[in-house]
User: Which sequence fits this backbone?
């Protein structure tokens, strides 16, 4: 389809994955397997935390919320992609595209906010252990989770509002496997300089603030450990942060890759690969990272297995 001004757009075409017919069964099996592993792994984390009284602590409260956000995040994209591969269709309606974009930003931003809350929890646990039960009380934990949700909702609706300002599009081809807001900006007919500035500013702020909070928390944690005269216990406490740091690096590493890829390689396969890592691989690996590196989770999963067999 040649570029043209399309005043009334009812659908878009997602062109992110391979068009090779021989690749379609492989892609279908691969993404279906990864999606099922993601759902099962994160559901097991939620079940383990909710069923084991030993895990009714702030850290695992945030972890179960993170698993729920990961389920919603990947479910926003992968089921539609699997159906498209199976039916050999790349079409998505205008309304479904906006809904997918909003949910993607909502749950993606919520992942980042929850990771920040978990970093704050580790900061209080290691730097102020005597005050930990008082500071990280259930009321504060619920407030942090709600604030994470509402900030993420505001971010998603700001992006949605920006896209709704466009009255016509030059084309209906989106060079990704989901409705990427940066791609929609490029398809707009009108001058989108202001919209670009606003969208990337909002995206930058919603990413910069959580990253800053995580860096500050771990800076205080490491400083506290280095100042401690007897650091054996503190190093053991720091080891509990290993899983969280692994997830943070995976989430923000792939997220920054997608963010920069949308700027540097707007129609490149490199951007698609980064998007797969961010939207599919990262949520799939999170349960493995927490279960393999965490004795409490492994023990809870073992007790859950014994009760069910």
Assistant:
């Amino acid at each position: 389809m040649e570029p043209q001004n399309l005043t009334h757009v009812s659908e878009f075409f997602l062109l992110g994955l391979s068009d090779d017919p021989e690749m379609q069964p492989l892609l279908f099996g691969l993404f279906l397997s990864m999606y099922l592993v993601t759902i099962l792994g994160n559901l097991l984390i939620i079940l383990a935390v909710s069923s084991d009284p030993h895990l009714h602590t702030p850290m695992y409260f945030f972890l179960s919320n993170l698993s729920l956000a990961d389920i919603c995040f990947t479910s926003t994209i992968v089921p539609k992609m699997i159906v498209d591969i199976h039916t050999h269709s790349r079409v998505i309606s205008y309304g479904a595209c906006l809904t997918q974009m909003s949910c993607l930003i909502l749950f993606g931003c919520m992942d980042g906010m929850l990771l920040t809350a978990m970093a704050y929890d580790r900061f209080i646990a290691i730097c102020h252990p005597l005050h930990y039960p008082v500071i990280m009380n259930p009321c504060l934990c619920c407030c942090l989770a709600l604030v994470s949700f509402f900030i993420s909702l505001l971010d998603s609706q700001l992006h949605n509002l920006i896209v709704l300002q466009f009255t016509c599009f030059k084309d209906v081809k989106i060079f990704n496997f989901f409705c990427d807001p940066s791609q929609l900006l490029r398809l707009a007919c009108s001058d989108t300089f202001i919209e670009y500035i606003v969208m990337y500013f909002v995206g930058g702020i919603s990413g910069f603030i959580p990253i800053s909070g995580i860096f500050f928390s771990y800076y205080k944690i490491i400083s506290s450990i280095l100042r401690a005269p007897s650091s054996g216990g503190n190093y053991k406490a720091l080891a509990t942060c290993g899983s969280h740091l692994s997830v943070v690096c995976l989430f923000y590493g792939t997220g920054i890759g997608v963010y920069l890829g949308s700027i540097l390689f707007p129609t490149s396969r490199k951007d698609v690969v980064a998007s797969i890592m961010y939207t599919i691989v990262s949520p799939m690996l999170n349960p493995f990272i927490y279960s393999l590196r965490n004795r409490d989770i492994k023990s809870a999963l073992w007790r859950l297995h014994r009760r069910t067999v």
